[in-house]
Amino acid sequence: MITNTSLEYKGDLYPSKIVSYEHEGDSISFNTDNKVILKVTILRDSLIRFRFTTKGYFSNDFSYAIDKTQLHGYNFLELTEEETYFEIRTSKVKCKIQKADLRLAVYDLNDFLILEDELGFHWEESYEYGGNIVKMSKFSKDGECYYGLGDKATQMNLKGKRVENFATDQYAYQKDQEPLYKVVPFYIGLHNKQSYGIFFDNTFRTFFDFCQERRNITSFWAEGGEMNYYFIYGPQMQDVVTTYTDLTGKPELPPLWVLGYHQCKWSYYPESKVKEITSKFRELKIPCDAIYLDIDYMDGFRCFTWNKNYFPDPKKMVAELAEDGFKTVVIIDPGIKIDKDYWVYQEALEKDYFCKRADGPYMKGKVWPGECNFPDYTNPAVREWWAGLFKELIADIGVKGVWNDMNEPAVMEVPNKTFPMDVRHLYDGNPCSHRKAHNIYGTQMARATYHGVKRFVYPKRPFVITRSAYSGAQRYTSSWTGDNVATWEHLWIANIQVQRMSISGMGFTGSDIGGFAEQPSGELYARWIQLGVFHPFCRTHSSGDHGNQEPWSFDEEVINITRKFVSLRYQLLPYLYTMFWQYIEEGVPMLKPLVYYDQDDTQTHYRNDEFVFGNQILVCPILEPNAVGRRMYIPRGEWYNYWTNELFVGGREIWIDTKFDEIPVFIKAGAIIPKYPVQQYVGELEFDELTLDVYYKNGKEKSVVYEDAQDGYDYKKGRYSFLSLRTIGKDKELIIQLHKEGKYDTPYSKYKINLIGLPFKVTEIEIDNEKVDFDKISFESNNFLIVDKEFNELHIVGE
């Protein structure tokens, strides 16, 4: 007979007083008398990990997000004990931990308060599932702003928002809709010209509240797991983003063709339709490097098969497309059709590689092939098996890239759109339910795909794209923002999403140009192309249910605009490649929201539209129909209008006139922008000149250009070319200094230097301190000169 059915208090529980501590190496553990432990680990002087447990011991320390190849180390660490608190000091910050309740605060070395607990860590017993709901709340300072968290379809500044992280197949999502496809539990706080970051490394369903529920309180919590977060000190946003990107990892350099324009649709079939599409691109002289095959290329939607009615000889087709410069990219989903005669299903069944329900049977769900089982990509053996499945596609048939979709994971005809929460996963030796593994399922699929593509495309470089991702997925894959809609609102959303992804560590991202669902007008498609060519991943993709969305689906004017802007992207490929190199070498985001570019200017804190592409090109898309111009904010400094070469002084909002075939694009004064000639695909042309657009500035500016063989791995052996270019402008003189590193000899022999904005007439030119005749360098009155690439210093003098 049950005599007492009362449970202990179900509400919030809190740490009690500290009763002991241990200091061991880079970690300090504080123990409370109610068995809470706070472990503080100093990874760098500006990177501190805070990890809590409520059970008196920690579970195995494991994370899919952290890049384990990164080495960490601090310069200084000191622990001191005061009457009411402990203080941990590094060479950058100090952290005070209250003895009474483990609440903590972080200061800079000048005692400026950066971040302070309100309730701090607390938790709630989860009687339904076991474990805890873990919570954290902190004070928000006056005027504090918040950024990051991946591809949220909302304002750049998250102040006043609440967001949810649970990877979800969200077809035709709308502005402010939550949750979406990706989970990046990392945000950046900014107040009083100081930036910091918080990365909450917890794969359960998580939530972040930025002063929505309670004014001046920000909080984050998870439906299970540990309260485990990293504090990153700036004070510049650049420092925060770079440190976070180092922590979670960076990709390898993609082949240059991947940065070209891609064309996709659900679906291009049969083979004759694919070739009709690719031929039209070449006929219209619209550059394109990749053509995609969606699920209809398969036999009954079975992964790793071909529909021989549509594609009777895929190897021959792929080879013929390659001859015309097109790389073939195919889709692969996680659902494996239940079919005893299907070889992939047979193998997985024999090896026991499918996900199981809690009470034993395989998890079954409906996706495109019908009833499917799903591999457990958190099992290393499954990932190795999955990688091996790509041999025929990549090595034999010649496919150059793989596109992972439906990997949230998405399941049809069920209310929650995904697996039941009792599904079990190996989780690399840390067995768990789908509650914990859901948010990383897509990343582990992309990881397995990446290793397979890399293995069989070698000695070339791999290309993988994924819809679902968790922090750290950027080590393996690019991404896109999912099933958007052909509306002006979604053009606005795409602009913000890709900027946000860029400062959230996942820079290699784009949107479905023109919108996936519904049908864009010609004007909307043109405006989307004008934005999309300035996104790291550039692909038109649409649902065939809503009509055609190739550039020639619209009128001649839209065709011309598409050609103009895609051609501009191909001219800017060396600039874009350099951006990518800086991203993987230094963790610098390829797109920079204005607040990232200049956080000290408060006018940037709420700007959504404008962004800096690379380091020196300012872009502002047109986001409304019938526009003949728009107001935009020019960041501080001097900027040239790309179309007119007119010079503007920044730090102000201005009206810019635009035509239908233009959007506002500005170049930073002093910049040197490298350009290739327009090619219909990467590698089509051999050329003997690299164009350098040099924008005059009275003062100094540095530019860089990275080049290599455009594919393969010789660059890792030092066979690259890295140019450091410096402009020094004076009233009647411009000096261009060049320094080259690396063993790669670029195939061109000359620079075509385009001098823009010179305030004087050129009367004399010196190369490496020797005067030269204008005829010898083909100097023209329109300020073009052609010089041998082997120079160190160029003096241009005028009157």
TrEMBL record:
<dbReference type="GO" id="GO:0016798">
    <property type="term" value="F:hydrolase activity, acting on glycosyl bonds"/>
</dbReference>
<dbReference type="InterPro" id="IPR017853">
    <property type="entry name" value="GH"/>
</dbReference>
<feature type="domain" description="Glycoside hydrolase family 31 TIM barrel">
    <location>
        <begin position="251"/>
        <end position="579"/>
    </location>
</feature>
<dbReference type="InterPro" id="IPR011013">
    <property type="entry name" value="Gal_mutarotase_sf_dom"/>
</dbReference>
<feature type="domain" description="DUF5110">
    <location>
        <begin position="689"/>
        <end position="757"/>
    </location>
</feature>
<dbReference type="InterPro" id="IPR025887">
    <property type="entry name" value="Glyco_hydro_31_N_dom"/>
</dbReference>
<dbReference type="Pfam" id="PF01055">
    <property type="entry name" value="Glyco_hydro_31_2nd"/>
</dbReference>
<dbReference type="Pfam" id="PF13802">
    <property type="entry name" value="Gal_mutarotas_2"/>
</dbReference>
<feature type="domain" description="Glycosyl hydrolase family 31 C-terminal">
    <location>
        <begin position="587"/>
        <end position="673"/>
    </location>
</feature>
<dbReference type="InterPro" id="IPR033403">
    <property type="entry name" value="DUF5110"/>
</dbReference>
<protein>
    <submittedName>
        <fullName>Glycoside hydrolase family 31 protein</fullName>
        <ecNumber>3.2.1.-</ecNumber>
    </submittedName>
</protein>
<dbReference type="Pfam" id="PF17137">
    <property type="entry name" value="DUF5110"/>
</dbReference>
<dbReference type="InterPro" id="IPR030458">
    <property type="entry name" value="Glyco_hydro_31_AS"/>
</dbReference>
<comment type="similarity">
    <text>Belongs to the glycosyl hydrolase 31 family.</text>
</comment>
<keyword id="KW-0326">Glycosidase</keyword>
<dbReference type="InterPro" id="IPR048395">
    <property type="entry name" value="Glyco_hydro_31_C"/>
</dbReference>
<dbReference type="Pfam" id="PF21365">
    <property type="entry name" value="Glyco_hydro_31_3rd"/>
</dbReference>
<keyword id="KW-0378">Hydrolase</keyword>
<feature type="domain" description="Glycoside hydrolase family 31 N-terminal">
    <location>
        <begin position="38"/>
        <end position="209"/>
    </location>
</feature>
<dbReference type="InterPro" id="IPR000322">
    <property type="entry name" value="Glyco_hydro_31_TIM"/>
</dbReference>
<dbReference type="InterPro" id="IPR013780">
    <property type="entry name" value="Glyco_hydro_b"/>
</dbReference>
